[in-house]
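Q: What structure does this chain adopt?
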Amino acid sequence: MEKCFSLEEIKLAVDIAIGDDGFRSKEVSEILEIFWKEREEEAERKIQDEQIKAYKEKRIDAFLQNN
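A:
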């Protein structure tokens, strides 16, 4: 089973683990948000690549059928 934690739970865990007032957990949350954005961008690129590939294959198939 995949474990999922909210950003607030992660921040709290960081604060508790290092006895911090929130500074380090803020840094951790900013890093995680960057990771998330990078994942979203990569997923979008994959979708676009798949759409381009499907379009090219469709054009090739149409060309071959007409010739």
